[in-house]
Amino acid sequence: MVAGRPSAVNSSTATILRSVQVNLRETWWIRDVEIPTRVVLAPMAGVSVQAFRRQGRRFGAGLVCSEMVSCAGIEHRNERTLGYLRVARDEHPLAIQIFGSEPRVMADAARMVEAAGADLVDINFGCPVRKVTKTGAGATLLDDPARAQAVVEAVASAVSVPVSVKMRRGLENGSRACLTVGPQLVEAGAATLTLHPRSARQMYTGEADHSLTAELVSLVDVPVIASGDVISRAKAQAVLATTGAAAVMVGRGAQGNPWALREMVDGDAAAPTREEVAAELILFIRETVRELGERRASGFLKKFYGWYLGRGRFPRPFKQELVQLETTEEVVTRLLAAAPGSAEIVERLEAELPDPADEILLDQMPISIYGGG
Ligand SMILES: Cc1cc2nc3c(=O)[nH]c(=O)nc-3n(C[C@H](O)[C@H](O)[C@H](O)COP(=O)(O)O)c2cc1C
User: Fold this and answer.
1) What's the number of domains the chain is made of?
2) I want to staple 61 with a disulfide (CB 3.0 to 4.6 A). Which of 41, 97, 305, 320 is the partner?
3) Which of 269, 287, 312 corresponds to the end of one domain?
4) d(CA 147, CA 42)
5) Surface-to-core class of residue 356, CB atoms within 10 Å of its CB (0-12 exposed, 13-18 middle, 19+ buried)
């Protein structure tokens, strides 16, 4: 199930990298959940809306994940509700991520996300953001292994789908907490672990130290997913070859750039045409407006304009112009004018979407917009 694992990352790494061609289009399993490729789309608060997840699946991610959802928010449904969580037919396999520190509340939340159609319940032990850590949730739990275990045990016994845990290396720089806590979480019932080997203190600075991922792989007998700084096929293959991880997770590298997923999975490095870029962005805008409503979507989407249109794809003033526009409809109109050929592509992509009637709506589910991991 888990690909061959070198015993350590050492001076022979360079040789391994030159000689190993890892097949990223290989099926692997988390218990009975079949994952068709070895690329996983990362959960990202403020990013991983349904349109992002669906697009990720379409471009080759074998597994996608929701952004973190507050279990307290699920419990107190009268809390500020930020939207609906929709699970569409073309998202599966899908993990829904929850965060919190109370085992009972987390177990209740897990039951709800299972009912919503998640194939996996993912637990966030990686969020470094103070708003979350001060409640004892997220990365803080790496410093409280007994509670972390209790959370995983409660969640694993509440649902029949596999439970996964996503964590950082530890709270402080240089911490190796993940290597002691990780195996304990597997004992408590985690069917897979994702490691983002930065400390919580590091946030997103420095580099992910995947020698820790290799160590974790050697300590547990469940698949490990390697998260952090994977932005290309070469890097994905290097991380898989040197760590023995079952899959890589891609976050920032896929923001406004689903083509990076295709390059990783299929080796298809062709740059998208302007028409393709505009079409993906238009579809993304339309789906997001449908999910969040125009008022929330118009603000939410602004960062995506830069992500899609940058990388030399469109002139900088064009991006600046889009950000100034009031409505998403105006943005779509400008995109269609700038890349007329995109209309036909959007039409084709929309025709391929499943019927909205197939979607599962979980009313009144609050979605966290603050987060990280
Ligand atoms: C904007 C943003 C939001 C994030 N939100 C979450 C989250 O909700 N849950 C989580 O486990 N990790 C979250 N992360 C961490 C990513 O899942 C991933 O582990 C990290 O970005 C490293 O991978 P990358 O280098 O491929 O981006 C977030 C990261 C970013 C950049």
Assistant:
1) 2
2) 41
3) 269
4) 25
5) exposed
Instruction: Please check whether residue 146 lies inside any domain of the structure.
Output: yes
Q: List beta partners, residue 64.
A: 94
Does the C-beta of 128 come closer than 6 Å to ligand 1?
no
For residue 304, the enclosing domain spans: 274-340
Amino acid at 197: P
Q: What are phi and psi of 369, to 5 degrees?
A: -110, 0
In a domain, 2, yes or no: no
Residues 131-181 have pLDDT tens digits of 899 989 999 999 999 999 999 999 999 999 999 999 999 999 999 999 999
Q: What pLDDT score does 85 carry? A: 62
**Cα 42 to ligand 1 centroid, rounded to whole Å:** 6
Whole-structure pTM value: 0.92
> E strands, 52-93, where?
64-65, 69-70, 85-87
In Å, how far from its chain's centre is CA 202?
Answer: 19
Any catalytic annotation for residue 127? yes
| Contact yes or no for 172/178 (Cβ under 8 A) | no
